[in-house]
Write a structure and sequence with these properties.
Penicillin-binding protein 2a (Domain 2); elongated; single chain; 18% strand; alpha+beta; 5-stranded antiparallel beta sheet; Beta-lactamase
Length: 617
């Protein structure tokens, strides 16, 4: 039997062609008849997509007080090709602006990226609703213009600007990294607005309209089949106590520095004051850009969040860390005593104030004896079992870092700084290897030298003391979403490298620093309250660029801590003079919601340390 291979080959090719034709025809039928999305894509040149912007989520304090809400503003949109000659003066009068402003707006609109006279562009941004009310009624007289509603932030109380943050318009860099945004959108720039942007922003919607060749709307496309509704942003409940925050900002008026208060049991931030501060409403609306430039150029840096970004020497508050490390390493004991006669006299020496002598460990904390902690620090670094000062320093450094120093605490706010804890490599480079010892870096014994911490880290340290050895991640948001359930990110508990047993001696010393008898040498008696047992530690942080800083941290009550607080006042002198009374007033305000010492409150409220600083300069 013979096969005709030539004929079989023709049949095979013909069959393949028929199959390919059927596939193509089927695909075309699906695209043109069944799947209308391709028709929508092909019709893009005769459709206009109008974005529907959602309202951002609201922000409440821990007690349900509204801190941030929204208000409606309008963007005036323009399609240049549809605009006919109009009375510029009447137009400007309706908006309560000048004719020059209108002309400048036309020039700027034509310079926008992707500008087309046939496309809708923004002519004027964020017009207040009141200014648009008259224009809305007369808009029919001005073809080519329309008002697009937007929402911007409204602050029910002028507090916590650094924590809440602000929003601003996206730039091309943001758009290139995140396709969700397009020109004209707003995004969180700082604070909670930035950290929780994805929750607060909501989801944009869209309306699709049919337009003619002149981009004039002729009606909704397919009865709104492809429209989508905007979804409002989720609300936040933050951990701040708005009343306490407001009170702290009043106490810090005309002063430079920070207050950070934390609930020890949870790590929730009760107050975070950075002074000087600013009215958050200044960064809303059409004046935002001018106001921002003014704030940015202010020599006092009101936009700078000192609570998490400023690096300060912790001063004598750091002595409690050296005491704990010394106890843990067996380099000092609670009953160990040292004499002090005006300072530590070895090497270049470290001065000290007049107080009773000799002192044991708790008394040294009570009276903030520099000499005592010089001994403790050198005992740690020169401990024979370590074999070298480098090894002793490394052991010391590891302990210090377990308190959160030298590391970010990962608070849910942007731009947190990690502080500074020096390293062996740093000293080897600065002094040369083998060219330094415990005496060379003795300033670390009293929280000076190459050591630096943020006010948040100092508040976290006193939280650790209050908890007798641990802290939870500090955070400023308690719950996200309308369900108001606790944030799913459960704060992590961190333990220090120090055994719990040693903390009671530190607490006792801090108790006596505030509540010691008159004439006992206690450094913080000004912070004492008759029926609230406050435990605290003063600090006077040396400042090579001017007057010393006033420092104090504390927790209360002693046996059931509800608040831990640090106060740092720049160029204000002794810790007991300014920082301690401010902390004491904050504690009383939070625990009692009233103030029993109006004379002390007036002393702080009326003080203008900025004037004093200016006169010294």
């Amino acid at each position: 039997m013979r096969f005709n291979f030539q004929a079989d080959k023709r049949f095979t090719i013909t069959g393949l062609i028929i199959i390919v034709f059927i596939i193509i025809a089927g695909k075309l039928f699906y695209i043109q008849v069944i799947d209308r999305s391709y028709q929508l894509s092909a019709s893009s040149n005769v459709l206009r997509y109008v974005t529907k912007y959602p309202a951002r989520g609201l922000i409440f304090d821990r007690n349900g007080n509204l801190l941030v809400s929204n208000k409606v503003v309008y963007d005036l949109m323009m399609v240049k090709k549809q605009v006919v000659p109009f009375d510029t003066m009447a137009f400007a009068s309706l908006l309560n602006i000048t004719t020059d402003h209108v002309r400048d707006a036309f020039v700027q609109a034509s310079r926008q990226k992707g500008y087309s006279p046939r496309k809708s562009v923004v002519l004027l941004k964020q017009l207040p609703a009141e200014a648009c009310a008259m224009l809305q009624e007369k808009l029919y007289l001005f073809p080519g213009f329309e008002l697009l509603p937007r929402t911007v932030r409204l602050y029910d109380r002028e507090v916590a600007s650094h924590v809440l943050g602000y929003i601003g318009e996206v730039d091309e860099e943001i758009i290139s990294k995140n396709p969700y945004y397009q020109l004209g959108d707003y995004i969180g720039i700082s604070g909670l607005e930035k950290s929780y942007e994805e929750y607060l922003r909501g989801k944009k919607g869209v309306s699709v309209y049919m337009v003619d060749v002149y981009n004039r709307i002729k009606g909704s496309y397919e009865d709104g089949k492809y429209d989508s509704a905007a979804v409002e942003g989720q609300n936040l409940i933050c951990t701040l106590d708005a009343d306490l925050q407001e009170y702290g900002e009043k106490l810090m008026q005309n002063k430079i520095g920070s207050i950070v208060a934390i609930e020890p049991r949870t790590g929730e931030v009760l107050a975070m004051v950075s002074s000087p501060t600013y009215n958050p409403g200044l960064l809303v609306g059409r004046e935002r850009a001018d106001n921002f430039r003014t704030l940015q150029n202010d020599s006092l840096k009101p936009i700078f969040n000192r609570s998490i970004m400023a690096l300060y020497p912790p001063g004598s508050t750091f002595k409690v860390v050296n005491a704990l490390i010394g106890l843990q390493e067996g380099c000092v004991y609670p009953q160990t005593t040292y004499s002090c006669h005006g300072g530590y006299t070895v090497g270049r020496g470290v001065g000290c104030h007049i107080h009773p002598s000799p002192l044991n460990l708790t008394q040294a904390i009570q009276m903030s004896c520099n000499t005592y902690f010089c001994h403790v620090f050198r005992n740690i670094l020169d401990k024979p079992e370590f074999g070298s000062v480098e090894k002793g320093f490394t052991v010391w450094k590891n302990h210090v870092e377990s308190f959160g120093y030298g590391n970010k605490l990962n608070i849910d706010l942007p731009n947190e700084q990690k502080g500074i804890v020096p390293t062996v490599a740093f000293y080897d480079k600065y002094f040369r290897k083998g060219g330094w010892n415990s005496l060379t870096i003795l300033s670390l014994s009293i929280g000076q030298g190459e050591l630096a911490a943020t006010p948040l880290q100092m508040a976290n340290l006193v939280t650790i003391i209050a908890n007798r050895g641990f802290y939870l991640d500090p955070h400023v948001v308690r719950a996200v979403g309308d369900s108001m359930v606790r944030n799913s990110n459960v704060p992590e508990k961190h333990y220090t490298t120090i055994d719990t047993q040693w903390f009671d001696y530190i607490v006792e010393g801090m108790d006596m620093a505030v509540n010691g008898a008159p004439g006992s040498g206690s450094t913080a008696r000004i912070a004492a309250l008759p029926d609230i047992r406050i435990c605290g530690k003063t600090g006077t942080s040396q400042n090579p660029h001017g007057a010393d800083h006033s420092v104090f941290f504390a927790f209360a009550p002693k046996d059931d801590p509800k608040i831990a607080i640090s106060v740092y006042v720049e160029n204000a002198g002794f810790g007991a003079t300014w920082a301690a009374p401010i902390a004491s007033l904050m504690i009383e305000k939070y625990l009692r919601d009233s103030i029993s010492r109006p004379y002390l409150e007036d002393y702080i409220l009326q003080a203008n340390l900025l004037d004093r600083r200016a006169k010294k300069k």
